[in-house]
Amino acid sequence: MPSMERPLNVRPQLASVRAHYGYPYHQWMTQEFDELGWKLVQKSLLQKRFHDVTLLIEGPDQRFALMSKHSYPPGVFRSPSGGVEPGEELAAGALREAREETGLKIDLRRFIHQITLDIIHADDIARWDSYIFYATTKDTELNPTDKKEVREAQWATRSQIEGMVDRLRATGNGGLIYRGSLTEASLWALDNPIRIREAKVQDMPSISRSLTANLLDTSKMEETLWWVAEVNGLWAGTLGITALSDCVELTGLTVESAYQTRGLGHTMVEYACDQWNNPEQRKKFGSVRKVFLNDKLWLLTPNPAYFLPVNFVLTSKEFLPESLKQRLIGPRARWSPMRYQLYKL
Asked: Whole-angstrom Cα distance, residue 173 to residue 170?
């Protein structure tokens, strides 16, 4: 069990995990829990644990490993998951949880999905993060070592897992309903890998069209370092960092309609912020114009709630750089200023 003396904050590891295992979709969900489920959540929160690591483990015959806890109804299984322990690397925690809940030795392949979950009970709310990895194994025998936690493990085909989503939701249990939604979203993410790349000259007309279609400013395209997101080779979105006269602004976020509810926008924001906070990557901004290398990233938005899961915080207009203050007029007068805060807890 995690120690209560050391906080279980894995967020400082995420940039390096994303750099190694790829950028996941980052989706925001809401789920209502009953009294028993809420007490289990509160137990984890009191231990300073706000997350789980979930694993889609594919075996040599293309089946996936599932597990069932003693408290689950008969025939209800889900993907193995658990928490990272104090001082443990996220990847190491994933390998350990796989061994405990399935007995399998696995290889982590891709970081495919992250879900920020608002757990609701009565008038209370708690925030939880699930980090989902795709992994493979050469092992074929399932033998969980944590018998106290796990009742049984079994292999399932892709179609059987999709059927299990319905079973999880049919339980009426908030935690298991969420696991069904997580499974469905993660399978989709597995089939639709993201590629984010720096934009090329030939991309600029398409970027301009995307900005115009989303009623976004195109006047500072030449002062902006742009990225393009692709899903299965198809254009999926844009994002840039603009060097203004007195600050640096995150701008030009567009997401194609097919991906707007999948968390791609959050993924692109995290990618841009990781680039900005990487000293080597930040040198690229010098090719756009002189920038403020020690400055925070700012943004102006009519929808501040959208950026809260990706570590942007609201800030007072009085602290805004002058170039951004001047833009909060007319239709933008009610927009909210935000700045990026690294590793917000």
From this structure: 8
Same domain, yes or no: 71 and 88: yes
Cα 293 to Cα 174, 281, 296: the distances in Å are 45, 11, 9
Range of the domain at 88: 11-191
Domain count across the chain: 2
Task: Give the confidence band of 118 by pLDDT, cuts at 50, 70, 90.
Answer: very high
Burial of 138 (C-beta count, 10 Å sphere; 0-12/13-18/19+): exposed
Q: Are 179 and 237 contained in the same domain? A: no
Residue 4 lies in a domain: no
Half-sphere exposure of 194 (CA within 13 A, CB side): 34
Q: Is the pLDDT of residue 343 over 60?
A: no
Which residue carries 């989503």 as its tokens?
A: 165
Could you give the CA distance from residue 158 to residue 58 in angstroms, rounded to a whole number? 10
pLDDT recorded at residue 8: 55
